[in-house]
Amino acid sequence: MALPEAAFDTEKIAQGIAKWAEVESPTHHTDGVNRMMDLAGRELRTLGGDVERLPGIDGFGDVVVSRFPSVEQPDQPGILVLGHMDTVHEVGTLASRLPIRRDGDKLLGPGVLDMKGGNRLAIEAFTALLNADIQPQLPVTFMFTPDEEVGSPSSRKRIEAEAVKHKYVLVPEPLRPWGDVVTGRHAVQRFWVRVHGQPAHAGLSKTQGRSAILKMAEVIGRIEAMNDYDKATTYSVGTVHGGVFVNVVTTLCEAQVLCVAPTDELLLEVQSNMAALAGEEDGVRIEIEEGLLRPVAKPHEETMALYNHAHQLAAALGIELGHCQSAGGSDGNFTGALGIATLDGLGVGGSNAHTFNEHLLISSLVPQCRLLAGLLETLR
To answer: How confident is the model at residue 72, as a pLDDT?
Structure first.
């Protein structure tokens, strides 16, 4: 039986999300990320969870894992609720371009959509069950990570090690803007492009040098020209750094590229295309280094069975719940690729993640809470 709307307080949920968004937690601001872990850990401990704090690795923030055993099936693989507490918004965003504010049905703020809102919904859903004296049939584990926005370099192994202990993984990343949940994820791979030029005095003898910046500009044009939107294969140059002194012809320029491919075959094509950029041209050397990879997570049988269960629950709540394989990386890539039933995109509705217009829809909070509570209650 689904919890009624009255079991949830829209304003309380919105205020809780806003409170979390007040803590600026871009990935590399370890103190901010860890303050988020403090807040989440405190709430989970209040609910009776056994909270474990895993120290950060390589300068990233900590990981919080909280376990709630099942009375009826204590030894069965359970449900893992998996989310990240880092954002892409730098410290100072709150005071400048994205203050927390309400605009009709919208709540705007850094990370409200991706994905502090979804993490709070999961806790609110679980809290509502406990308040109604409803115990999930399966053990429930919450896992909050610090570095998803940069590819989860410090937490991937921890995520995979935890996920394999569970039957289901629920990821409260944002709903797709059109209302679908995510049953699969495209591959996402990062690449480093390094261009090595030759120095010269930029004022006296520029023609004797070879500018790494100039060549990088050419290479960026080639990379962006490889986008194939019909195949959902994309190449995006996200960062560029080069030069030290303005009066020296630049000898090193670096760029980071994010590539997305919906299938393993197209991922191989992307990797081949990027590798082909390497070589020497006009006295300038181009290097390509493969970086972090989120594998393709296909909508396999176990995940589709989980989706079908969610679809039936949603229908009973008056929610039309579609599904898709989605671009945009998630830690659900890892768990889905392991063959674990993974339902992603269960968080808040909204749009414009990673922008200065990031917002959630307040009207989505209670319906999504009810759906999450229903999944936690009825999964067997």
So the answer is: 77
338-359 CB burial, b ≥16 within 10 A, e <16: eebbbbbbbbbbbbebeeeebb
Cα–Cα–Cα angle for 332, 147, 20, rounded to 5 degrees:
95
Q: Is there a contact between 148 and 354 (Cβ–Cβ < 8 Å)?
A: no
Closest CA to 239 of 260, 218, 261, 216: 216
Give me the amino acid identity at 254.
E
- In angstroms, the CA 89 to CA 109 distance is 10
Predicted local distance difference test score (pLDDT) of residue 1? 61
d(CA 334, CA 341): 11
- 41-72: per-residue pLDDT in tens? 999 999 999 999 999 999 999 999 999 998 77
User: What tokens does 182 get?
Assistant: 């995510």
Distance of CA 89 to the CA centre of its chain: 13
Q: Is the pLDDT of residue 142 over 90?
A: yes
Structure tokens at 100: 């927390």
Q: How far apart are CA 276 and CA 246, in angstroms?
A: 31
The whole-model pTM stands at: 0.94
Beta-carbon contacts of residue 281 (< 8 Å; ≥ 6 apart): 215
